[in-house]
Amino acid sequence: MKKSMKFLPFILVLLVCACGIFAACGGGDDKGKLDATDSSKVLVAYFSATGNTEKVAGYLAEATSGTLYEIVPEVPYTQEDLNYSDSTTRATAEQHDPDARPAIKGSVENIAEYDVIFLGYPIWHGAAPKIIYTFLESYDFSGKTIVPFCTSASSPIGNSANNLHTLASGAIFLSGRRFPSSTSKSEVEEWVNGLNG
After folding, report:
1. Angle made by CA atoms 100, 101, 102, in degrees to the nearest 5
2. I want to staple 44 with a disulfide (CB 3.0 to 4.6 A). Which of 5, 29, 115, 118 is the partner?
3. What pLDDT score does 32 carry?
4. C-beta atoms surrounding 191 within 10 Å
5. What's the predicted TM-score (pTM) here?
6. Partner residues linked to 43 by β-bridges
7. What are the contacts of 61-64 at 24+ separation with CB within 8 A?
8. Fold classified for 3-29+39-195
9. Across the strands, what pairs with 121?
10. For 14-35, what is the mean pLDDT?
């Protein structure tokens, strides 16, 4: 990988003024850019049920020199749990329950040290899995930048990202992106390059 593509970790350079505006708006408006600096830290947090999101998260961690963190459910999902054609399965039931918050095994160490969080997940029934809601409600993201990314066969990121804003009050959300299972490392690097500067 070229040095210029490896990216030193990021810090948000939407400074005091921008932070105040975004915070006042309750978490940003899914726009903006990142600028690379030597002093920032990136966390790439992801939940992956089938491995597709994990692959993209790995590429992102390499491209940003970020720390990789897997959001692991306390009770793992089985193949039966993920059968979307069955309305009685665990994943379907959770997605239709606004109060569902699946427990997470473990936690991020020193979350306060990170400036930028790339947050990855698969699309379930047009939305982020409820375990992502658990993650966002578990920490204080005030002043941090969250960049969502998702994987799916065809569903866009759309409201799956917008619906997360209220869960991380005070955070600044940048525009997210959907990746198919066939995504290459170079495609992820190109996206990260586009976010920077």
Report:
1. 110
2. 118
3. 55
4. 19
5. 0.82
6. 67, 117
7. 62/1, 62/6, 62/185, 63/1, 63/5, 63/6, 63/7, 63/185, 63/188, 63/189, 63/192, 64/7, 64/9, 64/10, 64/116, 64/118, 64/192
8. Rossmann fold (3.40.50)
9. 150
10. 39
